C-alpha cells in the first residue's frame, strides 16, 4: 500500500514537472487576430447539454445588442432551436438581426460517440472503482469520438468559416475539439463557454496535490469532504485516468495525424491552460466545491439559462395545469431514456409520493424502447385523476417552468443545466445520476444542502422504495425545510451574479 502511494506521488511529480517545463518553453502568444466588429461566430456541438449555454447566450446578445451579427455553426439537429431563439428575439425587437446558420457536415459529437455506445444506455456506469474501467474507455472516447479523417474534415470546414466570416470573436464549445484547435491555430480572438462545474475544470490546477486527497475523482461519487478512508481509492482513480489519457495510443495517433497536417498543438490535455482564451463558466464558487485557486482568465458568471418567454406564453395549458397543486418536476434531461424496469421503479416511487403528499407530478418520460403500459400500473389512477401528467417531451424551457414558482422539487439526472436552473430558481433537488460527471453534481448538491441523492449505494440502479424515500424526505419534514432555506440562499447569490453580468 505504501508503495502505491509513493509511486503515485513520484509519477505525479514527474508529470507535473514535464508539463511545467513544456509550458515554460512555449513562447509568449502573439496578439490574437480580431476580425469584423459586431460579428460573432459560435462553433458548437448540437447536443442540448453541451450547447444550451451557447444558445442562451445568443438570445441574450440579440436582446441586449440587436445590432450584433451572429453566425452559428453546428450540426443539423440544432437548427430548429436556433430558429426558435432567433424568432423570439425578433418578436421582442424588430432591430434584432436573424441568426445566420451554418451547417457542419459529418458526425456530431454525440453521433460519433454513439457508434461505440449504441444509445444513451451505453453511457450508464457505476461510480467509483467499480466503474473505473468503463470510465477510462469513455474518457478516451469523449476526448475525441471522431476518426482522424473526420477531425481534419471538421477542422477544414471551420477554418473556411472563420476566414470567410472574419468574426471579431469566436465562441467555443470545449467538447468540439476541432473548433478549439482551429481557433487556436489561427490565433483568433476567442472565448470558451462552459456549463461544467468549476472543479471539473480546475481541480487539476489546485495546489498541494489537491486532486488526489481533497477532491473526489471524476465519476467516483465520493462525498466531499473526502474521507481519509477513501483517499487511496481516490488516488488510484485519478492516476488510472491520468495514465490512460496521457499514454492513450488512439489519442496519440490522432494528434500525430493533425500535427502532420499543420495543426498547432492539437487536442491538448488541458484546454483551460491557455490564458489568451477567456473561459466563461456558468458555474460559480458558491454553488460548487470550494477552490483555492481560480485563474484570472476563468470567469464564473453564474447560471446562463435559456428562457425565451414565460411558461404561459410557451404553453398556456400546461402553465394552467401547474397552478392546480404544488408540483414535482421529473426531468432527466435530453439524453436519459427509460427502459421498462426504470419506468416501473420510477412509477412505483411516484405512486408513493402522490399517496403521501398533496403534490402533483409532471414526468418527462422518454422511452428507450417500446414497452407495455403495465410498467405504469402503479400510477394508473393518478394519471386518470390528472395528478400525474406524463409527457415524452417538454415544449417549454425547463427554467421557465421553474420560474413559475409552482415547482417545489426538481428531480433530474445531475446535468449541469438542470442543476444550475434549479439553483437560479431556488428549487430543491433530487438527483439520480447514471454516469461520470453526473455523479459529481449529485455529491455537490448534497454537500451544499440543496439536494438529495437517493440510492447512491445501488447507483446506477434505481429501486422504487429508495427513490420514494428520497422524494418524500425532500418534500416533508425537517430535511425539506433545511433544503428549501439553503436553496433560497443560493438563489439570491445566483441572481446577484445575473445583476452584474446581465445574463439571467
From TrEMBL:
A Gene Ontology molecular function term of the record: UDP-glycosyltransferase activity
Erythromycin biosynthesis protein CIII-like C-terminal domain sequence ranges: 400-459
Alphabetic keyword roster: Glycosyltransferase, Signal, Transferase
InterPro entries tied to this protein: EryCIII-like_C, UDP-glycosyltransferase, UDP_glucos_trans
Stretch forming the signal peptide: 1-25
Chain ranges passing through the membrane: none
Protein name in the entry: Glycosyltransferase family 1
